[in-house]
Design goal:
SH3 type barrels, 6-stranded antiparallel beta sheet, 2 domains, alpha+beta, BirA Bifunctional Protein, domain 2
């Protein structure tokens, strides 16, 4: 097993496993056992997944598979996807130049227009308490090009930086960034997030709204960046959530 030494963190407990089905699943089990805060990391996942039930390729000793869980207020829970995206962006740009790095709505990280990081947010309650689980998969080494069922080609910190990346250092960067953004004001979170996803304005998009097919271009984002605003050929705008998007098209790419 790998060894980690990340020092004190805002999360009270640290759990390291050689293999798990999923770090998010283990975090949810720990919450069910009465644990209120922690970090769960695994060297390998057998059932890792991303948004929309997509699988997340999780070979042993290759990449970073980690979940953070804690009790949260409702406003922080609503901002969890943005907070995680900003933290992942900061952790990646500690190694790779920011000019090559993109935050893709809602919270994927692209480097050189290749996918390097994915995030899965889950919420649950225990009694009257609300919990947020933030799962992050960060490629330290590049998996096989066919390992992921993605429209975007995968990449890694090693490939993007041209050198090996030490797992403990990558985790420390991610922990520090997530802790920092969790303490930020909602206004600061929104302002930074809008700047980083603003490059997506004008991209072509197709999806569904109210059972009807929608196609057009991204005109902006809805309240709290929880939806995108799609402008149709008739000039009318409709809101679409991440789960209702079939594809977003950029020059030469689809996601």
């Amino acid at each position: 097993m790998r060894t980690y030494d990340i020092g004190p963190t805002p999360w009270r407990n640290f759990y390291h496993f050689g293999v798990l089905d999923s770090t998010n699943a283990e975090a949810i089990r720990l919450i069910g056992k009465g644990i209120s805060s922690g970090i769960v990391i695994a060297d390998r996942q057998t059932a890792g997944r991303g948004r929309g039930e997509k699988s997340w390729h999780s070979p042993a000793g290759k990449n970073l598979y980690v979940s953070f869980f804690a009790k949260t207020g409702r406003e922080q829970a609503m901002n969890a996807a943005k907070i995680a995206g900003l933290a992942a962006y900061d952790a990646v740009t500690a190694v790779v130049p920011a000019k090559r790095t993109l935050l893709k709505w809602p919270n994927d990280i692209l480097v050189d227009k290749k996918k390097l990081c994915g995030i899965l947010i889950q919420h649950l309650t225990r009694g009257r308490d609300l919990f947020t689980v933030t799962g992050i998969g960060l490629n330290l080494t590049t998996p096989g090009k066919k390992a992921f069922d993605w429209a975007w080609e995968p990449t890694s910190l090693e490939e993007a930086s041209g050198g090996a990346v030490e797992p403990n250092g990558a985790l420390k960067e991610l922990v520090a960034a997530l802790a920092r953004w969790q303490e930020a004001t909602p206004a600061a979170i929104d302002a930074r997030y809008e700047r980083l996803v603003g490059w997506m304005h004008g991209a072509a998009v197709a999806g569904r709204s109210g059972g009807e097919e929608v196609a057009g271009s991204i005109a902006g984002f809805g309240e709290g960046h929880r939806t995108i605003l799609v402008k149709g050929t008739d000039g009318a705008e409709q809101e679409i959530s991440a789960g209702d998007i079939d594809r977003i098209t950029f020059p030469g790419r689809r996601a």
